[in-house]
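The aim of this short unit is practical: by the end, you should be able to scan a pair of folded records and say something sensible about each. We start with the first protein, listed as its amino acid sequence and then its C-alpha cells.
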Amino acid sequence: MAKTKLEYVWLDGYKPTQCLRSKTKIVSDFDGTLEACPMWSFDGSSTQQAEGNSSDCLLKPVAIFSDPGRKNAYLVMTEVLNPDKTPHISNGRALIDDDDNDFWFGFEQEYFLWNPDTGLPLGFPTGGFPRPQGPYYCSVGAENAYGREIVEEHLDLCLEAGINVEGINAEVATGQWEFQIFSKGAASAGDQIWIARYLLERTAEKYGLAINWHPKPLKGDWNGSGMHANFSNSILRDAGSKDVYDMVCESFGPRVKEHIEVYGADNDQRLTGAHETQSIDKFSYGVSDRGASIRIPIGTVENGWKGWLEDRRPASNGDPYKIAARIIKTVKSAEVSVEEAVA
C-alpha cells in the first residue's frame, strides 16, 4: 500500500502579520487530486485562532502542488474554517469576490535573505556596511550578488511544484531578491504566492538563513521591500480608452485608508515618497511613474490602452488574498461609471 505525504499549509492568527504554519498528513493510495485531500484540523489555541476550551479549527484544502523537496509528497494550501465550516476571521482568501476568475493578478514578491546570527542581510560585512545600493540590482558576481544558490534552488522547486513563476532578479539592496508569480484568478495567485513563500522559507532553513519579509528592515538610504500587485479584469484588458483607465485609477483615490489597512504592517516605513514610492497618505497615478501609487505600464498604453495596472503600494509582508480582495472591490466600484462611458 503506497504512502504519500501531504503537507497542509495554512495561515495563523498572529497580528499584525500572519505567519505560515504546516503539518504532515500520511495517506494511503493517494491519487494526486485536490478532491482526494480530506478536511483536517489543528489546535487553534496554539496559533491565536481559538481558545483552549474550544480549540479545534478546520483546514479546508483549496490548492495542491507536487512537493519536489520530499519523496512521495504534495503541498496542500488550505483555508482555515470554524468548526461549523464558516470562514475563520483570519481567513483572507474567503474575502475574494472573483468566482469567474475574471481578475488576473501578477505579484512581484521582494524579500531579504537574512542572517539570524548577525541580524543583517546576507552580504553585510561583520561590524560594517557594504557599498551603497546601486550595483546589486540585477547583478552578477560575488561582490554584488549574495545567495544566488538559494534563489536558484527555490526557483527550481517552484517550477517543479507547478507554480507559475514568471521571473526572478536580484533587487536594489544587498541580499535583496524578487520573484514574480502570475495567475488568472485572484485566489489562485494568492495560493501560489503563499506556497512559494513556504518553499523559500524551507529552502533557506538548509543554509541557516531566514527570510525577512519586513517592508523596511534596513533603515537609511536603502530600498524597502514591496509586493507590487499587477492586475486586470476584462474591462481593463479590453478598454481601448484612456478615459476608462482614468476612471478606474481615480476610484482608488478616495479609498487610500482601506487599501493601506490590508497592504502590510509597518508599510509607513517604506511608503515615504522616497526610494521609488509615493507617500503612504497620498494617492497618485501615472504612465511609467514608479513614484506613483499606481503605475500605468507603458505596455498598456502602447497596446491601445488595453492591458493592466500596477499598484505599487502593497508591502512584502502583505497577504496577497486580502490585497487582491481589496483591489477587486475597488475596481468593481468603478465598473458602473466605466460601463456607462463605453456604452
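Turning to the second protein, read its sequence before its C-alpha cells, just as you did above.
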Amino acid sequence: MAENEPGLEPLQEDARITSLDERLKRAKSEEAVRNGAAESKGDSSYALGNRVLAELIGSMVGGAVIGGTLDWLLGTSPWLLLVLLFLGIASAFRNIIRISNQRSK
C-alpha cells in the first residue's frame, strides 16, 4: 500500500555534483599532503634541536650540581665539581654524536 501513495521521488545523482565532489576530495588530499610534509619536517628538526640542547645543558648542569654537592659534603672543593662537570660535558657530546648519527625518519 505504501508504494501507491504519492510522494517525492528520489532525485537522480547529477554527474556534475559527483565530479565536483571527486575534485574537491582530491584537492583536499593534495593540500593535506603538501602542508603536512612541510610541517612535519620543520617540526622534527625543531624537536631534534631541542633534544640536543637539553642533552648539552642537562648533562653539564647535572654534573656540576652533583660535583658541587659531593665537594661540599666531602670537603674536596673544587676537584669533584671539575671532574663531574667534564664527565657531564663528555657524556653530552657522546649523546649528541649518537643522536646525529641516527637515521632520520
